[in-house]
Amino acid sequence: MANHSQFGFQDASSPIMEELVEFHDHALMVALAICSLVLYLLTLMLMEKLSSNTVDAQEVELIWTILPAIVLILLALPSLQILYMMDEIDEPDLTLKAIGHQWYWTYEYTDFKDLTFDSYMIPTTDLPLGHFRLLEVDHRVVIPMESSIRIIVTAGDVLHSWAVPTLGVKTDAIPGRLNQTSFIATRPGIFYGQCSEICGANHSYMPIVVESTPLPHFENWSTLLPS
């Protein structure tokens, strides 16, 4: 999760998030090059004496027309590639359904029989020592690591949004509609998220906690969880 005074992204825990971080760095480098060039030209114009050499400079006009088009292509191609990757739904190893309510989440493991539970935020007064305020829940979403997870997201009342930044996942929960996305957790850990759509008075009190574990631990958890 994010630390105090953190300026960058959280550590990526899925291939999609790794691609998003790399694209962010790529776009920043392009923006830095553009700002440096513009600053250099402004400084040059202020320091040099006035000249009429650029009154009829078709070569310069050609360059400043083609160069922005090339820059846009350098930004658009990797962006489109990531968008298509985010929309791809491979053959999933596990399907999970998340239903947003005011103000808690309901999870259904559709590959298991009667594996359904509600996930509420733990109030500050009941929070165990060392746990995160406004982020910890009574029932975490447990998934096997290095497995393709498909999550189907919907809502039972108003608009919600299921978002876990470190996994690169953000899917709107809309009443009467099923949205889906997929991700792969590349390492074990506990990943925190929150509802990212204003959904009422307690919008900030419906966190999301995803726990990624090795497959044997996940199988043990699924057999021990009461229905």
UniProtKB/TrEMBL annotation:
* Key words of the record: Copper, Electron transport, Magnesium, Membrane, Metal-binding, Mitochondrion, Mitochondrion inner membrane, Respiratory chain, Translocase, Transmembrane, Transmembrane helix, Transport
The record's Gene Ontology biological-process terms are: ATP synthesis coupled electron transport
GO terms for cellular component: mitochondrial inner membrane
Query: What are the TM regions of this chain, as residue ranges?
Result: 27-47, 62-84
Residue ranges occupied by any Cytochrome oxidase subunit II copper A binding domain in the UniProt entry: 91-224
Q: Please give the catalytic activity noted in the UniProt record.
A: 4 Fe(II)-[cytochrome c] + O2 + 8 H(+)(in) = 4 Fe(III)-[cytochrome c] + 2 H2O + 4 H(+)(out)
Query: Per the record's keyword annotation, is Electron transport included, yes or no?
Result: yes
Location in the cell reads: Mitochondrion inner membrane
Which positions fall inside the Cytochrome oxidase subunit II transmembrane region profile domain?
A: 1-90
Any note on cofactor binding? Binds a copper A center.
* Keyword Metal-binding listed: yes
The record gives the membrane topology as: Multi-pass membrane protein
* Cofactor(s) for this UniProt protein: Cu cation
> What are the GO MF terms of this UniProt record?
copper ion binding; cytochrome-c oxidase activity; oxidoreductase activity
Supply the PANTHER family for this chain: CYTOCHROME C OXIDASE SUBUNIT 2, CYTOCHROME C OXIDASE, SUBUNIT II
Q: What is stated as this protein's family in its record?
A: Belongs to the cytochrome c oxidase subunit 2 family.
Function field: Component of the cytochrome c oxidase, the last enzyme in the mitochondrial electron transport chain which drives oxidative phosphorylation. The respiratory chain contains 3 multisubunit complexes succinate dehydrogenase (complex II, CII), ubiquinol-cytochrome c oxidoreductase (cytochrome b-c1 complex, complex III, CIII) and cytochrome c oxidase (complex IV, CIV), that cooperate to transfer electrons derived from NADH and succinate to molecular oxygen, creating an electrochemical gradient over the inner membrane that drives transmembrane transport and the ATP synthase.
Q: What is this protein called?
A: Cytochrome c oxidase subunit 2
